[in-house]
Each structure stands twice: as structure tokens, then as C-alpha cells.
Design goal:
By secondary structure, this protein is mainly alpha-helical. The protein has 4 helices and no strands. It has a domain of about 70 residues.
Length: about 100
């Protein structure tokens, strides 16, 4: 990449906003995922009887829906990121691209 073009991109206010917003949102999603995932792992490590609690009269235990919840949570936060990227981040990237290629 041309160093002058890279400098114009990094100096553009929309790029700086894009970078800051994306980084901040990424860290929030990372923190949320860490809490959910490691919370489940800590339950597995330190409270097996809770996870082994049967639900209803069948063989399903509380650990199964909680594990499924971790997977569903991952899908949901991925969807949240994609939704924001397709709306806000793509708009900011287009603004930067249009401004620096004039």
C-alpha cells in the first residue's frame, strides 16, 4: 500500500471513529463471551452436582441446556457483531474510502 494513502486513511476522522467503535464493541463482546464461557467451565469444575441435577423425569440434566445456552449465546453475539458491521462499520468504511480516493 502506498504510504501516503495509508497516512490519509489513518488521519481521516471516520476511520478513527470506525477503529475506536469497532475496538470498544469487540472488547465488550469478548468480555461477555469470556464471562459466559468461563462461568460454564467454572461450574463444570466446581459445582458438578448442580450441573448433574435432572430436569423433569428424563435423563436430561441442567448441564445440557446450560451448555446449549453457551453455544446459542455465541451465535447471538456473532449476529450482533455482523449486524453492526453491516450497518455502522460498512458505512464508516465507505466514507473513508470515498474521501481518501478523491
Amino acid at each position: 500500500m502506498d504510504p501516503k494513502l495509508a497516512a490519509r486513511i489513518t488521519a481521516h476522522p471516520s476511520y478513527q471513529q470506525l477503529r475506536a467503535d469497532r475496538t470498544r464493541f469487540g472488547w465488550w463482546l469478548t468480555a461477555a463471551m469470556m464471562v459466559v464461557y468461563y462461568g460454564f467451565i467454572l461450574l463444570v469444575a466446581f459445582n458438578k452436582p448442580l450441573l448433574a441435577t435432572p430436569l423433569g423425569g428424563g435423563v436430561t440434566t441442567l448441564g445440557m441446556p446450560l451448555g446449549l445456552g453457551v453455544i446459542v449465546f455465541t451465535i447471538v453475539i456473532t449476529g450482533l457483531y455482523v449486524r453492526r458491521a453491516n450497518s455502522q462499520y460498512d458505512r464508516l468504511a465507505a466514507e473513508v474510502s470515498a474521501a481518501v480516493t478523491k
